[in-house]
């Protein structure tokens, strides 16, 4: 269920998505408010679950994680126990940045960030040793055209 947000709430969220490290004074100045009301609004949005967490974005290249693979998985297994094991295996692997269950011909898509093709193969071999999959296609991203964590909010 969507939470009702007014224009000021949305402006605050835009500012936080742009740079959550800025001070309350900076956010208040940028949204045309004062510090205490901004702090109260942020607290309410946290309590309502609109703001899930505050985190830091790292540069994968700077950390030697230069290969991003999109992994398409088809499976003939759809039992609850298989799904439980599959989800457990994905959650246990830090190289899986995202995992989505899809409608259509492909059952799952994963975003996997690793150092290189050899590291991807190690990930792949470990995954298929834990859960049976029908077909896996790995697509190497050659270039990041756009990457953002910001949701499209109209301020």
TrEMBL record:
Residue span(s) of domain HTH asnC-type: 5-66
Gene3D superfamilies noted in UniProt: 3.30.70.920, Winged helix-like DNA-binding domain superfamily/Winged helix DNA-binding domain (1.10.10.10)
A single BP term in Gene Ontology: response to amino acid
InterPro entries registered for this protein in UniProt: ArsR-like_HTH (IPR011991), AsnC-type_HTH_dom (IPR000485), Dimeric_a/b-barrel (IPR011008), Tscrpt_reg_AsnC-like (IPR019888), Tscrpt_reg_AsnC/Lrp_C (IPR019887), Tscrpt_reg_HTH_AsnC-type_CS (IPR019885), WH-like_DNA-bd_sf (IPR036388), WH_DNA-bd_sf (IPR036390)
Lineage: superkingdom: Bacteria
Keyword presence, ATP-binding: no
Keywords: DNA-binding, Transcription, Transcription regulation
One term under GO cellular component: cytosol
Molecular functions (GO terms): sequence-specific DNA binding
The protein, known as: Lrp/AsnC family transcriptional regulator
Organism: Tropicimonas isoalkanivorans
Lineage: Bacteria, Pseudomonadati, Pseudomonadota, Alphaproteobacteria, Rhodobacterales
